[in-house]
Design a protein that fits this description.
homodimer; Rossmann fold; nine-stranded mixed beta sheet; globular
């Protein structure tokens, strides 16, 4: 892990950009240490997502949490993944034509990202937990839900997660969800344009966790209400403190 | 409104039992005034429900809220409602036989309670808001969802509500829900024995409110997690303060 820049905000939060191999990432740490760590997911494109990510990270830092994120495979300036881009083009063509999105397209779009991203998150987690002032337990928040599900299924360091059931979900992810037993808070946008509400409810139903709460709110894909940030903080406080 | 007894708890909360005509009720007020008011619903049987009700009221008082409840028509020591008791017997017979509960049974069980309870809640609200130290805006929390929906539909003093989508819901209530526009937080127990999950989701979908959040948790009818008390407090703080 190689730090490439740093800045400190007026609230005392330290933002450090890093690279891990060829993967760019950002770490935000509060003034207080040791800080439990929240891994912050996103749909790809760190620069484009930065305003929202830094907002979430500073909100979390106010509660004493460190946050970290890395660029998605194929996202931002990382090498393109032609097969995934083809699948995304197929998806957009189906949506524009008002057609049902096939399971095949969803699998070709999401599963290669899961297969690549999960080992990257695990390597990142190794490096982050070796830093002074960063401690477990570790939470995961948001991003591509299939990545979060796989990561939670394979890495016992993930102790709790806030998931966003607003991505296209491969059938394999619904099956994988049955293996998850950590506490979950699952966000669903009730009127999400491109997504199937019933699929999201089926995913929520599939999770094996004894404690799982669905928070469904009105509005489209990007309309998650501000107060869900507070609800996520309450959830992580219950499980990471 | 006639106060019949009072006691003060060690946390400073004052509990006063009252009658309003022949309706018994309880008012809990925090040490601080003026306090916004939360009307606390329940399924009937004040004495049986008392331990849970006083818990909710003292939790709310810690946040600066007054709470009040009244006995349900036909509940506790109030005069029996033979037609409602017949409907309840029909309901239990259907459940025991593993039969589908008919719309007719649900209507006969719930609608007479709604027709009687809502005017009683409104008269109670008139009396409560005339007391020193109690102020609007007013929230409603829990209880028979059809009563809460009708009350919110007809009484503009109800500014926000936490509803429990865990009662049998008449079709008329789903229609009435379309008229509701106040902010809502709707609790659903995912594995509620006697209730239809899809009906609860349909009810949530029907509400006309721009801000409505569904909180679905694991477990049966009486298994609402403790942390939903904190979530309700956050919700009321956003809307009654």
């Amino acid at each position: 892990m190689h730090f490439t820049s740093e800045q400190r905000f007026e609230d005392g939060v330290l933002e450090r950009r890093f690279t891990l191999g060829d993967i760019p990432g950002i770490l935000w740490t509060p003034a207080s240490a040791p800080a439990p760590l929240i891994l912050v997911g996103h749909p790809g494109g760190l620069d484009r997502m930065y305003p929202r990510l830094v907002g979430r990270a500073r909100h979390a830092a106010a509660g004493g949490y460190a946050s970290a994120t890395i660029e998605l495979p194929g996202g931002g300036d990382r090498p393109r993944l032609p097969a995934v881009e083809q699948a995304r083009a197929d998806l957009h063509r189906a949506l524009a034509a008002g057609e049902q999105v096939s399971d095949d397209v969803v699998d070709r779009l999401v599963l290669p990202l899961v297969d690549r991203a999960v080992p990257e998150w695990r390597t990142t987690l190794d490096a982050l937990l070796a830093l002074p002032g960063i401690s477990g337990p570790v939470g995961f928040s948001g991003g591509v839900v299939a990545i979060a599900v796989r990561l939670a299924a394979v890495d016992p360091r993930i102790a709790a997660a806030v998931l966003f059931a607003g991505s296209f979900v491969p059938r394999a992810t619904v099956e994988e969800a049955r293996r998850i037993t950590i506490p979950l808070q699952v966000l669903l946008q009730w009127d999400d344009e491109g997504n199937d509400r019933q699929m999201a409810l089926d995913l929520f139903d599939a999770f094996g966790s004894a404690e799982k709460t669905l928070h469904a709110n009105m509005g489209g894909h990007t309309g998650v209400p501000q107060f869900e940030g507070d609800a996520a903080a309450c959830f992580f406080t219950r499980h990471l403190r």
